[in-house]
Structure formats: structure tokens, C-alpha cells
């Protein structure tokens, strides 16, 4: 059975930063209150000239470069977003055109905070069903366009970013080993150490079968 493995990741966030200290001057909250409940110390705000597709494009370009994949090799682009550039064409259509992925289908998923997870889930299933070999999965939001930063309920939580993951078909053991590599890259100062350990245990068990 073909398994989807992650072969490249990319990310982009706008330059403008809105800190907790700045929010304190805009709404009744505090840095301590926000950090204790969310761990968030700052969030990014999109420039007037930046659209969701711009964030998605820059993250995707980085992921392609890291994976060593050419735009023409992408079979499908899935973008999870609730703040698309427009109703149609979809944000994924725009990214597909700007990247030059002439052979790729493209679609948006509307799933709010879990949009990037759903895009990865949908992309991996296309691979594992044998429909596609290489899928670009993106999560991108321009929530600063719709958030009222004087409202305490959502202001501390929501910001802007874009993330892209390239999935590719592989054997089960190779897929698991690749997951370990990605976990090691994304693990710092003990963060998610338990996840990394669990994945390494799966590699050890899978490796006993002698398959690659």
C-alpha cells in the first residue's frame, strides 16, 4: 500500500508584528493573561497589499525548494482557508496559476482553524488511494482583515500566516522514517518530544519487518 509522506515544508508570515503589550493598549487584557491561557506573545498582521494567496504562494515556494520538487510535478493543490482572496476563482486556483503548476487540480477547503489539517488529510488520502503522487497542502489565513482587535474574545488569538506541506507517495516504513525526520526538524527545547518518541517507536516496530 502506498503511504503519503511529507517531503517538504514551508512557512511565511508578514513582517508587521502585533504584540501583547500593544493589545493591552487596545483592549482590556494583559500579556500575562494571554500567555497563561494561550502561550501567544505576538501575532502577525498582513500589509494592505498582501492577500491570502500571497502568503500561501510564499510558503509553497519554500516547500517546493526544500523538497526539490518542480511546479510541474504537483498533481493537486489543496488550500485550507476561511479568508480567501475572493469567492472565485478560489485561492488554490490563484496559487496554482502563480506557481505555474500546469498539471495540477486545485481546490479550497473552508474549515476555519483546522483548515491546514483538513488540507493535509485530503491530500494524503488522494495519494494513498492512488489517484495522485505529489500533492501540495496549504493552510493560509488573513484573519487581520476580519478581526476586531478591540474585542477581547478573539483579538489575542487570531493573526496571519501561511504554511505549506508537500506530500508524496512512499512505502509505509519510508513514510514513518520521514515523519521522524520532520518531527526532529520541528522539535525544539523538548517541544512535542513525546510525539517524536512515539513515532520513533513505530519506526522500530515497522523496521522489524525488513521492508523499506
Keywords:
7 helices; Peroxisomal Thiolase, Chain A, domain 1; 5-stranded mixed β-sheet
Can you walk me through this structure?
- The chain has about 210 residues and is an alpha/beta fold.
- The chain is about 40% helix and about 25% strand.
- The chain has seven helices and seven strands.
- The strands form two sheets. Strands 1-7-6-4-5 form a five-stranded mixed β-sheet, with helices on both faces. It has a two-stranded antiparallel ribbon with strand order 2-3.
- Helix 6 packs antiparallel against helix 7 (about 195-205).
- The longest helix is centred in the first third of the chain and has 16 residues, at about 50-65.
- It is elongated and about 50 Å long.
Please name the fourth-level CATH homologous superfamily of the largest domain: Thiolase/Chalcone synthase
Q: So what's the overall shape?
A: elongated
Largest sheet descriptor: 5 strands, mixed
Instruction: Give the CA-CA distance, first to last residue.
Output: 12 Å
Arithmetic mean of pLDDT: 80
**Model regions low in confidence, pLDDT < 50 over at least 5 residues:** 187-192
Give the class from helix and strand content and strand pairing. Answer: alpha/beta
* CATH fold description of the largest domain: Peroxisomal Thiolase, Chain A, domain 1
**Number of individual domains:** 2
Order of helices and strands: EEHHEHEHEHEEHH
So what's the CATH class of the largest domain?
Alpha Beta
DSSP strand tally: 7
Output the number of helix runs.
Answer: 7
Strand content: 15-25%
Helicity range of the residues?
25-40%
Strand order in the largest sheet: 1-7-6-4-5
Radius of gyration, taken over Cα atoms and rounded to an integer in Å? 19 Å
Examine the secondary-structure arrangement and name the CATH architecture of the largest domain: 3-Layer(aba) Sandwich
